[in-house]
Amino acid sequence: MESCDVLVVGGGPAGSVCAGKLRQAGLDVLLLDRETFPREKPCAGWITPAALATLELDPDLYRKGRVLQDVSTFRVGLVGGTEVVIPYGKTVSYGIRRREFDHYLLERSGVRRSLGEPVMSLEREEGRWLVNGRIRARLLVGAGGHYCPVARHLGAKIGREAVIAAQAAEFAMTPEQEQQCPIPAGTPALFFCRDMKGYGWFFRKGDYLNIGLGRMDKDNLGHHVREFCLFLQRRGYLAEGFPGTFQGHAYLLYQRQGGRRCVDDGVMLIGDAAGLSHPQSGEGILPAIESALLAADTIVEAGGDYRRDKLELYASRLAARFGGGGDMPSSPLVSGIARFCGARLLSGSWFVRHIVLDRWFLHADRKGLYAMR
Ligand SMILES: Cc1cc2nc3c(=O)[nH]c(=O)nc-3n(C[C@H](O)[C@H](O)[C@H](O)COP(=O)(O)OP(=O)(O)OC[C@H]3O[C@@H](n4cnc5c(N)ncnc54)[C@H](O)[C@@H]3O)c2cc1C
Predict the structure, then answer these.
(1) Atom of ligand 1 nearest to the CA of 285
(2) CATH value of 2-45+97-161+253-330 in 3.40.50.12780, 3.60.15.10, 3.50.50.60, 3.30.460.80
(3) Nearest-5° angle of CA 355, CA 361, CA 367?
(4) CA distance 86 to 335
(5) Among the residues of the chain, which ranges form H helices?
(6) Domain ranges of the chain
(7) How far, in Å, from the CA of 171 to the mean position of ligand 1?
(8) Is the CB of 15 inside a 6 Å radius of any atom of ligand 1?
(9) 219-252, pLDDT tens digit by residue?
């Protein structure tokens, strides 16, 4: 039998950041993940400078031996249409590979871990958790992503929620492919679907190319991905028969009301398990990191009393931080007016730069978590 104060389920950005912060505070933490690391995670791998700052991660140190692609220009348009090119003249975002990034964060956390072990059973016994019949924990933190077993235990209706469904493929380009590609590394291209229910991306990071598409309806996702690839091929961005294999995943946009319950006696949810992705862009890495820090603060302040009343503060902190979300997933891109005007708006540099990029994707008007305190 193994025991710990806090068992964190999931070693993605949310889990490793929360576990690391708790370990630093002197708690006895165990992190469990069904995968061994490094592992793949379907993702575009786009992060904002706020994510690096919140992680207190030095870009120059991180990029030694890993991909950290500076992004200073975006291309934005409609699938099948032309793009507007928006140069910023400075680094406004980065591209990482999740395989490297998640492994780095997990190693950096220095936390005790059990990898390659999925959660098979969760039992509550005399105010403590018994996980897989062999781990006893006083507090359980669910960081297992959208399909987190802890979220399911808390009543999440997995499979019946209105999700973002997305697919991505990432592969190393040959020198010849790099030379033939008309879009330089560090210039992500975003192409919105004509019905404004999602967007595709084409993102070169170092020697790697990541392409993918996410939509607010999961029906026919494969069809939309195929159409997007054909469009990229016709445009000359993508060679026919490219070697990438698409992997899919789902996640939830943040909802102030009606989202997942994320606190109960002795249990909390963070990151995708709590459903926190940004309503306009679908960005989930920074919300995962921020929720991990808010949860860790709440846990440390609870001083060992992990009853629901003590942990509810975390739910209030989430609402204060992410409260901009509506009661339903509310993207301006799917409102009737935006749908009607989308094509015209996306052909104008002012709208693309100031609304789509600065406001929705880069959050130029939003202070970092620590700057708020
Ligand atoms: C195609 C796609 C593209 C995306 N692109 C971006 C992007 O460019 N930028 C961005 O900010 N966000 C992006 N997102 C969202 C982002 O990937 C997530 O929001 C983010 O990974 C959430 O981190 P997390 O730590 O909560 O969960 P995850 O990263 O999903 O980690 C969860 C961990 O839990 C483990 N786990 C799951 N089940 C179990 C179990 N039963 N037992 C034990 N362990 C378990 C998993 O192995 C995994 O390691 C994208 C999502 C998708 C699907």
Answers:
(1) 11
(2) 3.50.50.60
(3) 95
(4) 25
(5) 13-24, 49-55, 59-62, 98-109, 149-153, 175-180, 221-234, 285-302, 308-322, 336-345, 349-351
(6) 2-45+97-161+253-330, 69-94+164-250+335-373
(7) 19
(8) yes
(9) 889 999 999 999 999 999 998 877 778 999 988 8
Could you tell me if the CB of 34 is within 6 A of ligand 1?
yes
Ligand 1 and 10: CB distance under 6 A:
yes
Contact 258, 148 (CB under 8 A): no
DSSP 6-39: EEEE--SHHHHHHHHHHHHTT--EEEEESS-SS-
The residue whose CA has the least distance to atom 42 of ligand 1 is: 118
Instruction: Give whole-number Cα distances, 139 to 3, 14, 116, in Å.
Output: 11, 16, 21
Residues 314-353 have pLDDT tens digits of 999 999 998 854 444 445 444 555 665 777 788 889 999 9
Main-chain phi, psi angles of 360, to 5 degrees: -85, -40
Whole-angstrom distance, CA of residue 281 vs CA of residue 292: 20
For residue 317 and ligand 1, the question of a CB distance below 6 A is answered with: no
CA 272 – ligand 1 centroid, Å: 6
Residue 250 CA, closest ligand 1 atom number: 53
Which CATH topology does 69-94+164-250+335-373 take? D-Amino Acid Oxidase; Chain A, domain 2 (3.30.9)
| Substitution candidate for ligand 1 out of 98, 272, 280, 322 with most atoms within 8 A of CB | 272
The amino acid occupying position 371 is A
* Ramachandran class of 289: left when φ > 0, alpha when ψ lies in -120 to 50, beta otherwise: alpha
Q: Tokens representing 148?
A: 């987190």
